[in-house]
């Protein structure tokens, strides 16, 4: 089965072709980062318009790279949510139009399930069950995964997601959008121990996260240094390192607890923040002490991309799941409401 995957949940247009037996054949991505940088964040209307311009040319590009034609497509998967509703509608509209024209099944895929399954695209994919850390601009969650669609939420952020906290800290440090990678780059120049930031919600049991207090602590530190006329490049780098270290330590502590509580010895981390090198190194060190293994996607598949949607869609389309006649666009969509593959096959969900 050859699946065309379409990702348009936010500010990146991703398209990929995934074959159920041959694996990933081709993928292409267009990022709108430069366009939104002038505004300091994503402008939803501009994002939707740019998806309209870029989506069909990218579809043709991946077909050409794979040496395929539209007539070779067996099914189409697109991101149905969570995300910006206008951007989701662009991807869904194109997917349904192509599906109708080609007479192939179409399916809306959960964006975070795509991220969760992205490590399956690697040569050494994780086996079920495992604990997944989903960490991005909009989500910070720990999930126990027994199989595709079999998800148990262990804990999540009660306020800001880790990626959102990175972006807001970047603005405090006078860094451009996107904030996460720029904070990480600046932190490389920081001096360890120059500041000590709190590790939120690690002094109590549980697997919930909270990053709003850390964000406020960072703002207070920035304000104090500016008032003391101590605002310079080194101070900014030191604060960036202290903030990044606090986030990483918090995530590592919670992941260790989740592995212990679940009895799993495999940890998957996915989402845009999973590309952070300090986080990867710290999780690998923790897992090594726990006798566990860590899995993650290659950096280009940590952020939004069409390959993860094509893979996730392929698994569900093979099980028989289909969209109806209507485009699915769900700005908010709890992942634990998704059906498992066994349920799809048994009840014929579509």
Description of the molecule:
The protein contains eleven helices and ten strands. The chain is an alpha/beta fold. Strand 1 and strand 2 form a beta hairpin. The two termini are 18 Å apart. The mean pLDDT is 96. Its cofactor is Fe(2+). Belongs to the KAE1 / TsaD family.
State the total count of DSSP E strands: 10
- Give the neighbour order of strands across the main sheet: 3-2-1-4-5
| CATH class division of the largest domain | Alpha Beta
CATH topology label of the largest domain: Nucleotidyltransferase, domain 5
Give the low-pLDDT segments. none
Straight-line N-to-C gap: 18 Å
Helix content: 40-55%
Specify the structural class: alpha/beta
Average residue pLDDT: 96
Number of domains: 2
For the report, how would you describe the main beta sheet?
A: 5 strands, mixed
- CATH homologous superfamily (4th level) name of the largest domain: ATPase, nucleotide binding domain
Total of DSSP H or I helical runs spanning 4+ residues: 11
Radius of gyration: 21 Å
Overall CATH architecture of the largest domain: 2-Layer Sandwich
Specify the overall morphology: globular
- Share of β-strand residues: 15-25%
| H and E string | EEEHHEHEHEEEHHHHEHEHH
């Amino acid at each position: 089965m050859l699946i065309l995957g379409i990702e348009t949940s936010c500010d990146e247009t991703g398209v990929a072709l995934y074959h159920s037996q041959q694996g990933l054949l081709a993928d292409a991505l267009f990022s709108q980062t430069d366009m939104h940088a002038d505004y300091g964040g994503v402008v939803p209307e501009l994002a939707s318009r740019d998806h309209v311009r870029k989506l069909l040319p990218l579809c043709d590009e991946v077909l050409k790279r794979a040496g395929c034609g539209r007539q070779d497509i067996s099914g189409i998967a697109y991101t149905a949510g969570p995300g910006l509703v206008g951007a989701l509608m662009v991807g869904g509209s194109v997917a349904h139009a192509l599906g109708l024209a080609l007479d192939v099944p179409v399916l809306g895929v959960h964006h975070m399930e795509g991220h969760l399954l992205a490590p399956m695209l690697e040569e050494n994919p994780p086996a079920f069950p495992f604990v997944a850390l989903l960490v991005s601009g909009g989500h910070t969650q720990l999930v126990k995964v027994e199989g595709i669609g079999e998800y148990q939420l262990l804990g999540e952020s009660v306020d800001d997601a880790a990626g959102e906290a990175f972006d807001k800290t970047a603005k405090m440090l006078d860094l451009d959008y996107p904030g996460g990678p720029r904070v990480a780059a600046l932190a490389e120049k920081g001096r360890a121990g120059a500041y000590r930031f709190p590790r939120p919600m690690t002094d109590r049991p549980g697997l919930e996260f909270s990053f709003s207090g850390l964000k406020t602590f960072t703002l207070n530190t920035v304000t104090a240094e500016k008032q003391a006329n101590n605002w310079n490049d080194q101070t900014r780098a030191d604060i960036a390192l202290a903030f990044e270290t606090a986030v990483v330590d918090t995530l590592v502590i919670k992941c260790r607890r989740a592995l212990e509580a679940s009895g799993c010895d495999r940890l998957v981390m996915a989402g845009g923040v999973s590309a952070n090198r300090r986080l990867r190194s710290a999780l690998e060190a923790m897992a090594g002490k726990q006798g566990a293994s860590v899995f993650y996607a290659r950096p280009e598949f940590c952020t939004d991309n069409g390959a993860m949607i094509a893979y996730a869609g392929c698994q569900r389309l093979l099980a028989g799941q289909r969209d109806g006649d209507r485009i699915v666009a769900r700005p908010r969509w709890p992942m634990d409401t998704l059906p498992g593959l066994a349920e799809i096959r048994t009840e014929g969900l579509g």
